[in-house]
Amino acid sequence: MRKILYRCFFVAISPYLPNTGFGQFVKWKLALLLVGDEFHQQNLLNNRDKLARHFAHDTPLQADLAELLPFDATTDLKVLDIGAGPVSKVGKIHNGHEVELVPIDPMADKYRKILTALNLQPKYWTRYGEGERLSQQFEENSFDLIHARNSIDHCLNPITVIEEAITVLKPKCYFYLNHYRNEGKAAKYYGLHQWNFDVVNEDFIISNRFGEQINVNNTLRHKALIHQIKQTEERLIVIIQKG
Fold this sequence. Notes:
Layout: H1 2-12, H2 21-34, H3 38-46, H4 48-51, H5 63-66, E1 78-82, E2 93-94, E3 97-98, E4 100-105, H6 108-117, E5 127-128, H7 134-137, E6 143-149, H8 158-168, E7 169-180, H9 183-186, E8 195-200, E9 203-208, E10 213-215, H10 216-219, E11 224-231, E12 235-242
Helix pairs in contact: 1-2
């Protein structure tokens, strides 16, 4: 029923909403309410055994992320996972020591209900959080690493999320983004897919259906630098280092 309601909104109303902050908020909020948790619910139902390792307490930190931490880093490591979904896939152990993992998502309450119904218990429950308000929820310079996979391009304002992440990240530490390229175009701007991430002339560019483009390299010039960009035909990995 929710999917039908959103389809009606998408076809009859969404194309006529103005490209204003209010118009974008309405689109994002309705997509969040009506279709935001569908994928995760079906994924947990269909792939419960495959996803079981993410509920284990001794899952090692992903290799690409471990490389971004100091070689001798052991204890007191704090990692933020933005848009973590029902269970974070980042990992919990680094160099034999537990990582303090903080998964956040604006649909955390819905995910908790889904997991409870399936009798699944993650070590770190996803808590409510909006990327655009990270500095209101966490102290500045408080995370050793920040991760986001297939999530920032689902946010209301991606560049604000990136700037907020830089604020709560410790100096010289890294923000790791891993997303599909041009997901908005691929999804025809359905649901939460309102933004495109891509590389243009070696710069990280965010764009939307209205032709607006944000050069992230330029926007972050005085706060952070684009440490590395890796791209394939489908995916884009951007690693940002705070100054």
